[in-house]
Amino acid sequence: MKRKNRLSKAAYVEGILAGDRLVLSRAITLVESTNQADLALADEVLSDVLPHTGKAMRVGITGVPGVGKSTFIEAFGSHLTSNGQQLAVLTIDPSSQKTKGSILGDKTRMEELARDPNAFIRPSASGSTLGGVSNKTREVMLLCEAAGFDVILIETVGVGQSETLVHGMVDFFLLLMLAGAGDELQGIKKGIMEMAHAVVINKADGDNLKPAKRAKVEYQNALHLFPADPSGWVPQVKICSARDKTGIAEVWEMMQKHSEQVTTNGFLQSNRQAQQLSWFKENVQELLGSKFYRSEQVKAELEILTQKVKAGEVPALKAAHQLVDVFFGG
Ligand SMILES: Nc1nc2c(ncn2[C@@H]2O[C@H](COP(=O)(O)OP(=O)(O)O)[C@@H](O)[C@H]2O)c(=O)[nH]1
Ligand SMILES: [Mg+2]
C-alpha cells in the first residue's frame, strides 16, 4: 500500500543532501514510522546518506525539568547560529507520549530559535525499547548530519534511562544543574554526573550568582573524585545564566576545546566506532526479540508452555529451551 505522503528514495536523498528542511522533516517522519514499508524505505535512505554523515559535533544535554534546558538551548543556539553555525535540536521528551503539553511549552521558550533559519528543532517521540518501539534518535541525528548541520544538540530530561541512551550517541555530554539544591533534590544520579563532560550551573544571576559560584567549587571537587575519562578530558564546571545570556560563549568555547582534543588524540573516532558497534548489537537483540515474539508458532507454544510452567509441569529453563527451539528449529 502506497501512502500518499511517501516520496521516492531519490527524492528523500537528494532533498536531505541539499539541506531541504521540508524533505528532512518528512524523512524523519519516515524513520520514526511503525509501518514496515516506510521502515524499509527509511533503511535505504539512511544507507545512501551515510557517507555524508559524521561531520557534526554531537552534543547531549540533560537536567531535571525546570533547570532551564529550553532557555539554555535558546540562548546557546542563538549564539551558535549568530556565529554562522547550523544547529539541529532534537528533544527526547518522555512526557511527550502522553501529552503534547511540554513540547508546546518548549516551543514557546525556544521562540527565537524556532524562527532562526539556521536552526532546526524537532521533538522526538520517546519510544522506549522496553515498550517495543525503539527510539530513533540516532537515525534522526544521522539524517540531520547529512543535511549539513554543524552541531546536533540532543536534549533529554534528566530523570530516567534516556541519559544513558543519549550519552551513547554523542561526543559531548552536558549536565545542567542548579545551585543550592542537593543532588538528591535535583534527582540526578551519581551515574549521570559521571557521564558528564561538563556540569553547567544555570540561573547564575541576581541573588543566585554567589551560591552558583560556591556550587561550582563544590562540583569541581566532586568531579575530581571520579575516574579519569579515557579521552584524557577533565570534566569542567561552568556557571551561566540562560536568561541573561551570560557564560554561554564560555560553554561553546569549552566544547570546541574538547572537540579539538578528541579529534587530535583519535578518541573521537574510536568512541564513535564503539558507539556504532553497541548500536549494532542493540539492534540485533531488538530485531531478534521482535521477530521471535511475532512468530505464530512461538505465540502458540508460548501459551502452552506458560500454562505448564505455571502448573509446575515443566521447569522454567526447559520451557525456555523448548520455546527457543520452536523458533530456531533446534
Ligand atoms: N533566573 C533565571 N531563570 C531561568 C534561567 N533559565 C531558565 N529560567 C527559568 O526557569 C524556568 C524553567 O526553564 P525551562 O527552560 O523551561 O527549563 P526546562 O524544563 O529544563 O526546559 C522558566 O521559568 C525559565 O524562565 C536563568 O538563567 N535564570
Ligand atoms: Mg524544556
From TrEMBL:
Cited CDD domains: MMAA-like
One of the record's GO molecular function terms: GTPase activity
SUPFAM superfamilies in alphabetical order: P-loop containing nucleoside triphosphate hydrolases
Coiled-coil annotated residue ranges, if any: none
Alphabetical list of PANTHER family matching this protein: METHYLMALONIC ACIDURIA TYPE A PROTEIN, MITOCHONDRIAL, METHYLMALONYL-COA MUTASE
Domain of life: Bacteria
InterPro entries: GTPase_ArgK, P-loop_NTPase
Protein name according to UniProt: Methylmalonyl-CoA mutase metallochaperone MeaB
Cellular component, GO, one term: cytoplasm
Family label: Belongs to the SIMIBI class G3E GTPase family. ArgK/MeaB subfamily.
Pfam families: MeaB
